[in-house]
Amino acid sequence: IVGQPVHYGLVVDFSGFIKIVDVLGGIEVDVERVFIDEKYPIPGKENDECSGDPEFKCRYETVKFERGIRLMDGETALKFVRSRNAQGEEGTDLARAERQQKVLLAIRQKVLSPKILLSPKKLFGIWEVIKNSVESDISSPAGAVLLRRALDARDFLATHVLAEELLIHPPVSPRYDNQYVFVPKAGDWSEVNKWVSERLP
Predict the structure, then answer these.
(1) What pTM value is reported for the model?
(2) What region does 108 belong to: left with phi over 0, alpha with psi -120 to 50, or beta?
(3) Would you give the DSSP letter of residue 172?
(4) Tell me, what's the pLDDT at 28?
(5) Cα–Cα dist 179/171, whole Å
(6) What is the tally of helices (H) and strands (E) in the chain?
(7) Are 39 and 85 spatial neighbours (Cβ–Cβ below 8 Å)?
(8) In degrees to the nearest 10, what's the CA dihedral of 74, 76, 78, 81?
(9) Under 8 Å between Cβ of 93 and 84
(10) What pairing do the DSSP bridges indicate for beta strands 167-168 and 183-184?
(11) pLDDT number for residue 127
(12) Which of 26, 50, 67, 135 has the most Cβ atoms closer than 10 angstroms to its Cβ?
């Protein structure tokens, strides 16, 4: 899709995500738009029959985020990045990708702050969570090189979310397994490949 080689992969499970944010003492996130999601899934309730309620309302809770700089603990940050049923602009997958980037940048900023870098206890806590909650094919030597490069480039980081005008959202149909999907407007991924390559150094 992006037309670039993917050299490494890294997966963090939800519990690890929560723990990392909590070990850091929370993160500050700039919420640009107020949004309400009345169908945020409650963990463990995925198969609850809700006493026969056809709308399965007992499986969901309502989450709301107000505009402005918000201090988020792990649980709140997870809801912020996972929410996908808000009305309006924040209800799209691309908006969710933007929120995920905001949180990752907030985590990065907190990790690189003197308060964390100069605290062996905090660094050890982060390492313990990473060891138990992260899967990756990055070897230790490669990880050391990547960390060094990340530190060297910390003031030059750029993030992007794929431009919506390159995509179309076709009607839900069996052709796409009855899922909400994006497909390339051009009919193939060439325009997306070009868009990505233009943004790489």
Answers:
(1) 0.81
(2) alpha
(3) P
(4) 96
(5) 9
(6) 7, 8
(7) yes
(8) -130
(9) yes
(10) antiparallel
(11) 87
(12) 26
